[in-house]
Design brief:
This protein has 12 helices and no strands. By secondary structure, the chain is mostly helical. The protein has a domain of about 100 residues. Helix 11 runs antiparallel to helix 12. The longest helix is centred in the last third of the chain and has 40 residues. The N and C termini lie far apart (about 140 Å).
Amino acid sequence: MTAQDTDDITPPRDPAAFARPRGRGIGIVAIAALCVICVALGFAGSKIADWLSPKDPAAPQTVAAIPPSLDRPVGAQAPDLAGAPSVAPVTATNYDDLEARLATVEASQQRTLSAAGAALAAAGLAEAAQTSRPFEAELAALERVLPLSPDARALRPMAESGVPSRAALAAEYADIAARASTAAREPGEGAGVVDRILHALSGIVSIRRVSETTGNAPDAVLARAERQAAEGDLVGAVNSLRALPPGAATAMNAWKARAQQRVALDQHLANIRAQALSDLASAGGARP
C-alpha cells in the first residue's frame, strides 16, 4: 500500500467535518410557508372578486312562499278551495242549538226506555194475575214504572190474596149451583110434611136439570149461567143469576162476588196494558 492510499482512508481530524450541513432545513420550511401564503392569497382574491363583480338583475331569485294565513288581512275569510265544500264556522248559537238537540234526543230515548219497561211490567203482571195466586211482586214492579196509574192502585187489595181464575170459577160452579137448586125448592111456611121430607132428601141427593137453559125456572137459570161460565163469559153468567129466586140467589152470592172480582181485575189489567202500549207507541213515534 502506498502513502497516497493511506491518506485516502485516514479520517479528518476537524470535528466540524462530521456536522450536518447548515441552512438546508430552514430553506425547506421557508418554501412550504411561502406556498401556504400563496394559496391563502389566491382564495381571498377570488372571494373579493366575486363580491366586487356586478350581479345580473335578470337572474331569478328564490323567495320563500308566504303561507296564505299570514299574508291575509285579519278578519278576512279564506277563499274556498276548488271542488272542496265550504264549512260554516261553529258559533255560540250553533253550539247551543246542538246541545238542545242532544238533550231532546236523550229525553226521547229515556221516554222510550220507560215506556218499554212499563209494557214489560204490564205483561208480567197480566200473566201472573191470570192464575189464582197472589201477585204482589209483579204489581210492585209495575208501580215502579207507572206510579200514578189508578188501575195499579186499585189492584193492591186483590194482589195480597189473589183472585180465582176463570177456570177455577168454572170448576167450582157445579157444586155451588147444586146447593142453589136445593135452596130454590125449599118449601114455604104452608108446605106439607111430604114436601118437607122431599126437600130434606134433596139435600142429600141433589138432582138438577142441566140441559134446560131457556126460561126463568131456577134450574134453567143455573144451567144457562153454568154454560156461560164454562165459556169464560163471567159477565153474562152474573147477569143470568139475577133471575134466581131469593133462596137460590143467596146460595150463589159468594160465587158471584168472586166472579165480579175476576171481571174487575181483568178490566184493570186491560186498562194498564192499553196505557203501556199507548205510551210505548207515542215514545217510539216521537222524533226530535
